[in-house]
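Researcher: Please translate sequence to structure tokens.
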Amino acid sequence: MTYYVARLLFCCYSAALDALISGGNMEFSNLIVIWSIIGIILMLAELVIPGGIVVLLGAACLVVAGALGIGLVEGLVQSLTLWFMSAIVLLLAFRQVTQKLVGGDSHVDNTDEELDIYNQIARVKQTIGPGQTTGRVEFQGSEWPALGDGSVIAAGSEVRIICRENIALVVEPVHQATSQN
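Model: Translation complete:
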């Protein structure tokens, strides 16, 4: 493995030296140089775009440059194939390691919307009931269809949300003694 890394560095060094000797006019037909530059750019981009993925994609580019340098692959099609394969292998093998090093925002929020609306207070906009007659309530700035407990709930009164049934909220009237506390 050390031999391949040394060979890759030697190829990059010789390509850069050739470019300097030729007066800075470097032809981008050399795939080793192209893959190396892309790999280094991606690895440096990890400083701006943290997450641990871009550095692994850059490492895959360096793997391709090394394989081109020692003659394992030839041409663009084989290079791209090797890049896809090595990127997948590196992502699967080292994603957990980079995630631990980079860290990031990892918190768990409540993903059940019904728990967020349970026991909240809404205002009746259109009379609900009697029976299964739907009305409308205003909750969090939006109007929702609402079902009651079977009794008539007048417009303008406050209700407590019990649950949600499809897109309708199931509500019960808030008694005067409860709303004053």
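Researcher: Any highlights?
Model: The radius of gyration is 32 Å.
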